[in-house]
Amino acid sequence: MPINEINFQELRNSQHIHCGEHEGEVLRLYCQQCEIPICRECAILNHSGHIHLCLSLKDARKQCTQKILASLKWLKTAASFYAKQTRELESLEFECNQNSMETKHAIKKWTSECISKIKVQRNALLDNVDGMSSESKKLYASKKAVMHIQNEMLTSTCGSVSNILTYGNDTEVMFLQEGIKQRIGKLASVDAPSMPGKIEMVFKHKEPVDEFLARACTLTSPVSKVTIVYKAKLLKTYNTHLLSDEFAPCLQGIAGTENGEFVVTDRTNSKVKMFRDDGTLKWEHCCVSGAHPAYDITVTDDEKCVVTKENTSELDIFNLDGKCLRTVDTSCVNRKPRELAGVAALKDGKFIVGSSLHMLAILKTDGERVDNIDIWRLATGGDDEGRYLAVHSGGRVVASNKIMGFIQFIDTAKVTQSIHGKEGDKCGEFNSPRGVCTDKFGNTFIADHGNNRIQLLNAQGEFQVLLTGQDGLSVPEAINISSDGNLVIAESDGKVKMYEYV
Questions:
Q1: Cα-atom radius of gyration of the chain, to the nearest Å?
Q2: Among 93, 301, 353, 498, which residue has the fewest nearby CB atoms (within 10 Å)?
Q3: 490 and 435 in contact (C-beta within 8 Å)?
Q4: Are 479 and 487 contacting, i.e. CB atoms less than 8 angstroms apart?
Q5: Would you say 436 and 417 are in contact if contact means Cβ atoms under 8 Å apart?
Q6: Are the C-beta atoms of residues 283 and 318 closer than 8 Å to each other?
Q7: pLDDT, tens digit, for every residue of 483-501?
Q8: How far is CA 267 from the centre of its chain?
Q9: 271-275 and 262-266 strand pairing
């Protein structure tokens, strides 16, 4: 609106905000270019070039109100959208809580029903076993009574006839001969009572409960023997051959860490190698002297690697980053071993190591000697005893004897032993047994090197062939249980294989 068309008097009467620059002048106009309210004097003196861009405050307010209302409309639309989304989220949250509560309730109800059914089945099975046991005991007692009577009759007859033949005269013997023959013939014609049969119940390791219950319900007489059968399944194969190796690797020892890594000793390349759980190399350490290649290895609970070496009484201790912390001489005052053999971890940073002269030494990873155990009087096969060691869950030391073909369980406190197995190729027999390890179930695993198989000795002293060449096994040397309970086997040809045994 042109400035000369504005009725300033009308504006003055309707406005009461005065200009700060011109005394007595009221702000009645609005400069759109400068975007500020102005008075008449401002329009003439200060905004003369903006004369066509000046509006009355009322018109300016109207335009401004329209713009603000348009923006406000968008805000209201956005607010409505967010309110709707919030309501939907609240609804989802409520449904989630309801679903969670209902799911928990369903799980509790289902598990309670399962537990209740299992308890009912368990009680029925126990009652069934008690009933079968009671019936069998009655049967045994009845058969025992019959056998006892028959035994007394036979014993009495034998005694009487023997007395007649010994002390009777010729006439008495001849007169009694017919009666004796009839008596003997009658007793001989009596059939001996049959013996009741035996039933062996086989528990398959990790067998589904429903399958076990189905088999258990078919029992008709008490179980006389319980056997747990294991089967192994190949999970992974690792190749330990490195570009830096001068020769094809020949593995002799293996151990594992809590995070799934494993470390091996490579005899031909005189190396210690640690690999991650994906099979990639973490570090390698080359022994200084090829005359003393690394032999066996273990990882202690204070995260140290202990490595024995051939043809020496010294061993090396590494941290898990591959740094050699110290070399420890295990020689004792009375007898110095020509070489060390197997090594196994104990608790509290301790480990036990065997030598070629029937000595066991317990040391700490800081080099401190804890104890010497002389097992000379347990010697059964020359100097080359106990090539590999493991510690059984019961605290006994397990040692393999590759010369005599058996394994020993040594009670280090009482210095006593029990021997299992012998030379041969049948189940429970060995041909140059090497690595040994144990699991939390009381099982002992033995690398039957010469027979190319892994044997399992359970807590009841029963052997089972777990793995053979048909399962992909190839000349097992060392053996270990991983942190997740799998069987890890180091083979002489440089491969490491992981098996799940179920």
A1: 46
A2: 93
A3: yes
A4: yes
A5: no
A6: no
A7: 999 999 999 999 999 999 8
A8: 29
A9: antiparallel
